[in-house]
Design a protein that fits this description.
One of its GO terms (molecular function) is amino acid transmembrane transporter activity. The chain has 479 residues and is an all-alpha fold. It has 20 helices and no strands. It has one domain: Amino acid/polyamine transporter I (Up-down Bundle).
Length: 479
């Protein structure tokens, strides 16, 4: 049994499969990949988290908090970049763990990421619905209370209809083909970046340096507390790495896209935090729409509307990126036989994993439409942080066990950089609420049951001849 659960996928075989696989269509260039990364990283956080973290944790020094969080996140990003250049196949941390740590740990991280990404989609859809409703109200359009929120979220609320529709629309878009859906995502990301830049440039003319004093009212502990809070705003590039098998030149473009998207996001977060704490006192920013309210206080309602449009675009791109990631994780688990291979059948025309995509779309629509956001959000984060630990640790292990494997990109200063990523991720994991741990352990226990009753017997590593059969069946229009 111990030999079975620790069996690994050969990296050279993975590289060979990546070059010959016809299951997914390679259409993504470096810009499309960067747009997916920016879509996942820059969301509502730039319009909300900057203000809340400044008011409650770091004051104007939240800019330094973002730099610290960005450096910590970049440690994991560099590790992801090395793996992306070495193993350019779908699955991200799950596939990397399979190659280095063995099947059981790979299954655990894949199973964990599946629920994480799915819950992110539900949370984001609920948030997007709220922004759209707020924007409609601001222009005089009032939606019936019955369809604007899940039961228990307000008087007369029965269903969050817009959240349901956006989940279903995104799943439809993702099944239509990666080239078309990536083009749509790129347009949305450009709108988002334009809105962020307009907000920063206009706000720069209203900065009052006196608002930056004291710069660090909560001292160094406040800066570090702010870094822990905003760390969740500067990851998301891991979602992009799940699309490795749909990149034209993954070994070159994926590492580049990961680092570019993180750098652009970090610069924008720092600039936004400096502008926001410069135009109003940081003490006024602890609310659900700090950027929009700050510009309303300056009597600039047009900019406030631009902020709302940017937030909607930002949230839409986050939803796109994480539903994409969830479907690719499910696809990878199924193709490896750990879940039924039926889910790994790609569309005969569009070459997309349409079955898991539609299932995720329907599940997230039901969750987002009928469950309050506070309940859904409690489980998000622990899986991504666990994946960071796995990826960083795997880089250290692989440098010792297989140092001669070709790497188009190499993480610098190993083991220092991976250790930084591990320490920061573990610190944040420990700080999570007990209820998060309880629900995580319940999901983990369910995953272990699935693995030992199904996955361990049906793994492709049990039957070497299965890969070709899977690929042929997957691309059969009658499948």
């Amino acid at each position: 049994m111990s030999n079975v659960i620790w069996r690994k996928k050969d990296i050279l075989l993975l590289q060979s499969e990546a070059e010959t696989s016809t299951q997914l269509k390679r259409t993504l260039g470096v810009w499309s990949l960067t747009a997916i990364g920016l879509g996942a990283i820059i969301g509502v956080g730039v319009f909300v988290l900057t203000g809340v973290a400044a008011a409650t944790q770091a004051g104007p020094a939240i800019a330094i908090s973002f730099i610290i969080a960005g450096l910590a996140s970049s440690a994991a990003a560099l590790c992801y970049s090395e793996f992306a250049s070495m193993i350019p196949v779908a699955g991200s941390a799950y596939t990397y763990g399979y190659a280095v740590l063995g099947e059981l740990l790979a299954w655990i991280i894949g199973w964990d990421l599946l629920i994480e990404y799915t819950l992110v989609v539900s949370v984001v859809a609920i948030g997007l619905s709220g922004y759209v409703n707020a924007l409609l109200v601001s222009v005089g359009i009032h939606i019936p209370a019955m369809i604007v929120g899940a039961p228990g979220t307000g008087a007369g609320h029965g269903v969050d209809l817009f959240a349901i529709l956006i989940c279903l629309f995104t799943s439809w878009l993702l099944t239509r083909g990666m080239e078309e859906s990536a083009r749509f995502n790129s347009i949305v990301v450009l709108i988002k970046l334009l809105c962020v830049l307009i907000t920063i440039v206009v706000g720069a003319f209203f900065i009052k340096p006196g608002n930056w004093h004291p710069f660090a009212p909560f001292g160094f502990p406040g800066i570090m507390g702010g870094a822990a809070l905003v760390f969740f705003a500067v990851f998301g590039y891991d979602a992009m790495s799940t699309a490795a098998e749909e990149a034209k030149h993954p070994q070159r473009d994926l590492p580049l896209a990961i680092l570019i998207s993180l750098l652009i996001a970090l610069v924008l977060y720092v600039l936004m935090s400096l502008v926001l704490t410069g135009i109003v006192s940081y003490k006024t920013l602890n609310n659900s729409a700090p950027v929009a309210n700050a510009f309303l206080a300056l009597h600039l309602p047009i900019v406030s509307i631009i902020v709302s449009v940017g937030a909607i675009a930002g949230i839409s791109s986050v939803l796109f990126a994480f539903m994409l990631a969830a479907a690719r994780i499910w696809f990878a688990l199924s193709r490896d036989g750990l879940l039924p291979v039926w889910f790994a059948h790609t569309h005969p025309v569009h070459k997309t994993p349409y079955r898991p995509t539609w299932i995720i779309g329907i599940v997230t629509a039901v969750v987002a439409g009928f469950i309050p956001i506070a309940v859904v959000a409690e489980l998000v984060n622990i899986g991504t942080l666990s994946a960071f630990v796995i990826v960083c640790a795997s880089i250290i292990i692989l440098r010792h066990t297989q140092p001669t494997i070709p790497r188009r990109f190499k993480t610098p200063f190993v083991p220092v950089i991976p250790i930084i990523g591990i320490i920061f991720s573990l610190w944040l994991i420990i700080s999570l609420q007990p209820v998060t741990w309880i629900r995580f352990l319940i999901w983990l226990a369910l995953g272990l049951v699935v693995y030992f009753l199904y996955g361990i017997k049906h793994s492709r590593l049990n039957i070497p001849a299965v890969p070709t059969a899977i690929e042929e069946d997957t691309n059969n229009p009658k499948s």
